[in-house]
């Protein structure tokens, strides 16, 4: 199973509706929330997420790059996001937070920056529905994929296989036709792609192409 989730960060924020409609074949829409504290960039918050929710039945995959996810993440679940990702570097109580997200009907997901190891968080995995391994430093779209993240992706895949269940493994940052196969071969099943999708002549064709390459390369 492979999921392709275009990141609206690379879309025209004045034309989100048409961006959403340009990727009908996607498995979900990735929404990047940045607070200019956890990362040096500012994007959108709850009101915009609520408008996106009202505009589409597609799965909403919210990626919170904010300093206080313990306080804010549950509200994104209540606003109708099917998946809410918090950064473990920012969460004060990740187990409690994951349980609060699940209690609100959302998938609970934990993100790691490129230099954050997975091993200290291995015991948290049964509390989660997805692990997001950042393959760029969070904050901006259009950055170059960091190959140094691949060993961590492989180690995370091995840990998830040991835990069992249906915990998704996602990558975000620099995912394109150049890099998607390496990620799939390392065990990734969920791919965020911003500039490669919305920078393509036909975003939906790119979604199909990324899925084809990932499926072919999946272990
Ligand atoms: O979380 C993010 C940045 O922090 C974005 O989701 C990510 O960068 C997607 O953009 P691109 O595919 O262009 O790298
Ligand atoms: Fe993201």
From TrEMBL:
Cofactor(s) of this protein: Zn(2+); Fe(2+); a divalent metal cation; Mn(2+)
Annotated binding of substrate, by residue: 7, 63, 139-142, 172-174, 194-195
Enzyme class label: isomerase
Enzyme Commission designation: 5.1.3.1
Annotated PROSITE patterns: RIBUL_P_3_EPIMER_1 (PS01085), RIBUL_P_3_EPIMER_2 (PS01086)
Signal peptide extent: none
Pathway stated in the Swiss-Prot or TrEMBL entry: Carbohydrate degradation
Enzyme active site: 32 (proton acceptor), 172 (proton donor)
Pfam family, one: Ribul_P_3_epim
InterPro entries per record: Aldolase_TIM (IPR013785), Ribul_P_3_epim (IPR026019), Ribul_P_3_epim-like (IPR000056), RibuloseP-bd_barrel (IPR011060)
Record keyword Thylakoid present: no
Keyword Manganese applies: yes
Cofactor comment: Binds 1 divalent metal cation per subunit.
Residues the entry annotates as binding a divalent metal cation: 30, 32, 63, 172
Gene Ontology terms for molecular function: D-ribulose-phosphate 3-epimerase activity; metal ion binding
One GO term of the biological process aspect: pentose catabolic process
Family assignment from sequence similarity: Belongs to the ribulose-phosphate 3-epimerase family.
HAMAP family cross-referenced by the UniProt entry: RPE
Protein name: Ribulose-phosphate 3-epimerase
Species assigned in the record: Friedmanniella luteola
Encoding gene, per UniProt annotation: rpe
């Amino acid at each position: 199973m492979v999921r392709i989730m275009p990141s609206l960060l690379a879309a025209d924020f004045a034309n989100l509706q048409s961006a959403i409609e340009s990727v009908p074949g996607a498995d979900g829409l990735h929404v990047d929330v940045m607070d200019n504290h956890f990362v040096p960039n500012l994007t959108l918050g709850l009101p915009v997420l609520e408008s996106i929710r009202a505009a589409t039945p597609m799965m909403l995959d919210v990626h919170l790059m904010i300093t206080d996810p313990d306080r804010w993440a549950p509200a994104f679940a209540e606003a109708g996001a099917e998946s809410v990702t918090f950064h473990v570097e920012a969460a004060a109580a990740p187990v409690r937070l994951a349980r609060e997200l699940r209690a609100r009907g959302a998938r609970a997901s934990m993100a790691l920056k490129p230099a954050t190891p997975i091993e200290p968080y291995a015991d948290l995995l049964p509390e989660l529905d997805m692990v997001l391994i950042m393959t760029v430093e969070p904050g901006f779209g259009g950055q170059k994929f960091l190959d140094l993240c691949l060993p961590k992706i492989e180690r995370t895949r091995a840990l998830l296989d040991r835990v069992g269940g249906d915990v998704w493994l996602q990558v975000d940052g620099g995912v394109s036709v150049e890099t998607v196969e390496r990620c799939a071969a390392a065990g990734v099943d969920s791919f965020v792609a911003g500039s490669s999708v919305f920078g393509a002549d036909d975003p939906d064709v790119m979604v199909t192409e990324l899925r084809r390459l990932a499926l072919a390369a999946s272990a």
